[in-house]
Queue: 4 jobs
Job 1
Amino acid sequence: MSTTENIRKELQALADSKYQEFHSALVPGVGNILGVRVPQLRILAKEIAKREDWRVFVKATDTQFYEETMLQGMVIGAGKMKLDERMKYVGMFVPRIDNWAVCDIFCGELKATAKKGKETVWQFIQPYLTSPKEFEIRFGIVMLFHYIDEEHIDALLTYADTFSQEAYYARMAMAWMISFCFIKFPEKTMEYLKQSKLDNWTYNKSLQKTIESLRVDKETKDVLRNMKRR
C-alpha cells in the first residue's frame, strides 16, 4: 500500500458525516469532502511531517479527497526544511488549489515562513498577484495578509488600484485584504478608499467587510456606509 493510500485510510477513520454535510455547504462545487475537522488535520499534518516519507505524500498527485489536498498544504507548512525547499513545494502546490478553503488554510500555514523569509516570500508571490487564474491570484492576495505592516502598506494599496479581476473569490480576497488594511492603518486606508480605482463591486464589498469588523468603531462605520457607491 502506498504512502498516499495509508494516509487516506487515516483520514477516512477521522471522517464525520455530520461535519461533512456542514462543511460541504461552505465550499460549493467541491464534492469530494470526507468531513475531517481542521484541528484534526493539523494534528495529523504535524505527525506526518515527522515521518521519513512526508515528501512522498506532498509530491503525490493521486489524491482523491479534499482533505488530502488540504493535508498536503499543511505538511508543506509544518515540515522541517530550508526556505528554498519549502518555496519549491509551495510553487508545486499552488496549481492544486481549486477552492477558497484550501487556499486560505494553506496561506495561514505559511505565516511563519513569510515572517522568517519575508523578502524572499514577498518576491515569490508577486507573479501570482497578476495571474489570470482565480485561485492563483487569491493565493497571492491572501499571502499579502502577512505583509500588512509599515513597510508594505503603501505597496498593498497601490496594488489594489491595479486590481481588475472579475472572479468572485479573487475579488472577495481583495475586499478582505482592504478591510484588514483599514483595521491596522485606518487613516491611510481611508484616504485610499476616497480615491480608489477599484471596481464598484469590490469597493463596496471592501466597505462591507470593514463595517462588519468588531475592531472598527460605530462612528467610522457610519462614515463608511455613506461612502458606498450607487
Job 2
Amino acid sequence: MSLVALDIALRSATVALLLALAVSLLRDFRGTLSGRLAVAFALGSVAHALTSHIGAPSPVSIWHAPLIAASTGNAVVFWLFCRALFDDGFVLRPWHGLVWLGVVAFSFVNCLWLAAAGNARIAVIAINLLALGFLVLAVGQTVASWSVDLVEGRRRLRLFIVTAAALYGGMNAMLQIWVSGSGAAAIADVANAAVLAAVVAAIACAMIHVDGAELFTPSPAGPVAQGPAAQDSAADHKLIEALMRLMADERIYRHDNLTIGVLAAKLKIPEYKLRRLINQRLGYRNFNVFLNNHRIEEVKAALADPAQAEVPVITIAMDAGFQSLGPFNRAFKATTGVTPSEYRRLKVPAA
C-alpha cells in the first residue's frame, strides 16, 4: 500500500470514529455544557483530520480554507472543553465565542492571503504557535484542578483524554513547524494520521467503558445526589464524624493552603479514601467547593449577627479562610443567590 493510500485510509477511519463519537455524545450529553463542547471538539477534529497535512501546498483553495480555519479554532474549543470538564462551575461567556471567532478569522486570512503572498512558512509557524498556546492553557487547567477533583473515575478518564489530545496536538504543531517543506513531509503525514487515529480510537474505546455521569457534570456545584456506593457503614460514619469535628470545632477550613492531603493526614487515612468519603458519602465533586461551603456558612452567621454589623465583609471573609474578595464574592453568590452586602441587609435591617 502506498503512503498516500495509507494516509487516506487512516484519515477516513478517524473521521468515521469522530462522527460516531459526536453522535453518541450529542444523544446522551447534549444537556450539559461539557457534553456540547465535546461534540464541538469532535466535529472540529473532523475538520482537522480532513485538512491536516505536513507541508500543505500553497495557495489554499477557497473551499479548503474554512475547514483549516475550523481546525485551528478547535484548539480554542479544546481549551473551553477542558475548562468545562475540570470546573463544575464554569460558565461559557460571550467573550469565549469572540476568542474562537478571532482565531478562526485569523486562520482564514492566513490561508487565503498571508500564505498566498509568499509567506507560507511564517503562516504555518504563526498558526501552530497559536494552537500550541491554547493547548498549554488546556494542560494548565488539567494540572490546576487535578488535586481537588473528588470523582475518581472522572479524574482518571479526564486526565487520559486531555493528555492524549494535548500530546497529539503538540506533536502535530511541532511537525508542522519543523518538518514542513522537507523531504520527510510525506512520511510525517502518515505518522501524524496514524497517531491521530490511535488517539481517537483509544478515546472512543474508553468512552464505552465509562459512566458518562462521572465525566459530564449535569449540575454546576455543590453536593450531588448519593448513589449506591454511599451506603452507610460504621467505619465511614466514624470518619465522617471526625471530619465534621475538624470542620465545626477546629474550623480547619480556615487554614491557609489546606489540601486534601493535609486533611487526610489529620484523619490518619489515605488520601484516596478521604476523596471517596467526601464524594460518595457527602455528595461533593470538588474539594474546594466542600471547603467553601463551610466557609460560607461561617460568613453567613457573621453577616446575620447584629454585633458584627460594622465589621467589613472582607474581614469576615478572610477570617473564614478565603484568600481574596473576588473568589469569595463569586462563591457566596453562587451559594446564596445574593451578594454578601445584600445578605447582610436582609438579615440585619438598618436601625
Job 3
Amino acid sequence: MTALTSHLDTALWLAGQGLPVLPLREGKGPMGNCRDCRKNACGGRPNMKTPGPCACPAPCHAWAAATTDPTVLTSAMWAPAWRQAAAVAYHPGGAGVTVVDLDNPDAVAWARRTLPATRTVATTRGEHWIYLDTMTSPNAVRPGVDIKSRMSYARWLGPGTGTMGPLPDAVRALAVKEPTAVQPASRPATAAVPVDGGKCPHRSPAYLERGIAMAEQRIEEAPDRIHRTVYRMFLAVLSAHGRCGCLTDAHIKRLFTAAQGRGESLRHCENAWSNAIAALGM
C-alpha cells in the first residue's frame, strides 16, 4: 500500500465518520495555497480567519480546506497533495469537538489533576484530550497547552480511548487568559518605558498595526521555508518596535498564532522570538 493510498484511505474513512479532513505536509503544516489563491488573490478566506467566499477545488487555505466530500478528496486537484502528504488532519470545530493539545508530560499531569476525564489520544510527546462542543482556538493558554477547535486543525493519531465528555468550563476559561507560556519571551529585557501615553513614537498607532498585520500576512502566505520567514518577521517587528515599549502581549500573540497556523510549534516560536531579541542585542 503506497503512502498516497494509506493517507487517502484514512481521510475517506474519517470523512465517512463526519470529520472534515485535509492533508498535512512534512512538518505537520497544511498545504500551501494554489497559484490562483496565493497571497489571497482569490479574495476569499483572508488571513484564514473565516471560510470566506473562495470555492477553490484545491486543498487551499489551511484548516478551511477541510472537507467530508469524498468527490473533493479524490479529485485530480487534491491528488498532488496526497502524494506529498506526511499525515492526515481534521478540523475539530467542523466535527463539533474541541481538542486540548497537551504537549509534554507536565501538561498531561496538569490535565489529569484539573480537567474531567474524556477521550484521550496519545501523541508523540503528550496527549490530545477531546471534548464535545466547540470554542475559539487560542494557543499557549498555559505551558504546553494549546486548544484546537474552530479555525484550527489537529493531526489524526487514532480514535483514542475513553468516552468523550462535554466541554468543561475549565477549558473555556483558558481562552480568556493571556498565554502564560509566551509571556517570558514576549518582553525584551531592555525595552524602554512607553512614551507619549504608550503610543508608538515612530509615527502613529496605525504604523504599529500595519507592521503587525504585514508580518501576519507574510507568515501566512509564505510558500516554503516557514522557519526562516517566521524568524525574519519577528526580527522585523522587534527591530521597529521592540525598544519603544509599544508592543503588547496581544500583538505578540497574533504573531505566534500566525506562525502556529502554518505548523510552527510553540517551542519554535519562542526560540525564534528569543533569537531575534539576541540578534538585536536587546
Job 4
Amino acid sequence: MQALRELQQNQGATFSDAGIPLSFGNTSGLDAVSKDPVLVDRSHWGVIQMTGGDRLRFIHNQTTNTFTQRQSGEGCDTVFVTSTARTIDLTTVYITDDALLILTSPGQDQRLIEWMDRYIFPADRVSLTNLTQTMAVFSLVGPGSAGILKQLGIEPGADLPYGHHQSVDVRSVSVRLAVGSGLGLPGYTLLVPAEGVAHLWQWLTETGATPVGETEWQQLRIRQGRPAPGHELTEEYNPLEAGLWQSVSFDKGCYIGQETIARLNTYQGVKQQLWGIKLHGSARVGEVIRAGDEKVGLLTSVIDTPDGSMGLGYIRTRAGGAGLEIVVGETRGVVVEVPFLARGYLAADG
C-alpha cells in the first residue's frame, strides 16, 4: 500500500494520521459527479472473508437480508443487528463460488468478526478471515464510470442488478468488479489485492476519473443519505428507522433481531425516521431538532456547503417528513428526501 500512498501524494493528496487520503485539493469532482466519475479510496473499510459449507445459512441467520437461495456472482446490502434489532453495521456481501466477501464500514471489521464468532458453534462449517490489510477497495462514482472501465478494456455489462460482481483482469491485475458505488449514485466498487493497487489507481485516474478523498466522500455520503456507524448507525436506532428497508427481508424467517423488526413492520411502529436536513446556516452534530416549540429529533451528521449546511437527522414520524420546517440550534431549515434511503411498510419482499 506504500506505493499507492506515494502515488496519491504526488497527485496532491493530504492524509489523516491513519494514512487515509483526506482530499486531493480538488472539489470540482463533487460538482461534476452527476456527469463525470470520481474515484474514492475506501481501503480503510473492512473486508471479511467467510468460507465453509454453512456460510450462506450462517449469514442468512445473522443479518437482515436473505441469502440461502443466492448464487455466485450476486451481492446485496444487509444489516447486522442486535437481538433487539439495534443497528451494528450496514454491510455489502458478495457471493463467490467458495466464499462470501463482506464489505464493512471503516473500523467495523474486527468488531463484526468478534460478534459473529460468538454464534459460530463447533458443528458449524464457517471460518472467518480478516482481509482488510491485504485488500484495497476503490469506488468509481458517477454515470461516466462505465466509460472509464471500457477504456481499460472492461465491459461491465448493461442493466446488471446492484451487487452483481465478477472477477476481471485489468492489464494483468486481478480485480473483483461489483455494481454499485456505495451511494445512491451509479458506479462500481472494485476489490483488489494490495500488490496491484497502485497500478490500478494510476490507470483509473489517467483514464479520466477524478480522485477525491475522505472529506469529499463524507460530503457525498451526507448528501446522498448513507447512514454511518457512530452517527446514524448506533444501538439507539433500528434499520427501519435508519431508512434501510431495501436491506431487510420480511419473509425470510428467523434471524437475530427478526421478531422486533417484524413487529415494527406489522404494527407500523417506526417512531422516528432518518431524513436529510437542509439548513440555512451552521449547526453541530448532536443538536436538537425542533418544529415550533416541540423537540422532534436529533442531528446526527452535518457538512458545510456554499448554500448553508446539509445534514442527516432522525425525526419523529408523527412530526412529519419532507417539507417540514425545523430549527436546529439557532439555524432554520427544512426536512428533505435523500436518494440512498428507503421508507415504507411492506407486507413481504418486493
